[in-house]
Amino acid sequence: MKKIWMLCIVMLLFSSERIYASTPSFEQPYYEAGYKSLKQSLTECEQHFQREIKLPKVEPAVEFTHRFGRCNYVKDAQLEINNHYEVEYLNQNKPENHLMIWVYPLNNELKRFPRARDTIQTYTLNNGNEARFGTTPVKKLFNVLSFEKNDWYYIISSDRRSEIITGDVLVQLANSI
Q1: Which end of the chain has fewer beta carbons closer than 10 Å to its terminal beta carbon, N or C?
Q2: What is the pTM of this model?
């Protein structure tokens, strides 16, 4: 009888370990895609670009459970145009609480984003620069604000399902950089 109980306990331990191991954490896919903590990724990208990258000092009035960053760069001169810093603010339980920030050197090709037909409004930031607010071209899933600041080209994007993160909120974030 004692052997049967031991066998059951051993089987339970092994089966629960398999169940746990087969259920990836929310963070795992992000880490596998190269995301890191904001501090670690920001330091890496600042070292790559050899200059400071500033992020918004404020966050929208929504709850985020996770904050990730990733420095995307290649050393091939022909592909350098895509080098950028990428940040994601997410809520594991509320997918509409999703904010993304991309920071590119000014010599990139995205300065016409959002496109004219996807632009909803133009704002003037506190520093006098123009910011274009619009939507993503495909299925209009995200609101987008693009602008130049501190010799960088920024794109701040939020899930359109959020009733809290509006164009005015994206402008507040831009002004806080």
Answers
A1: N
A2: 0.81
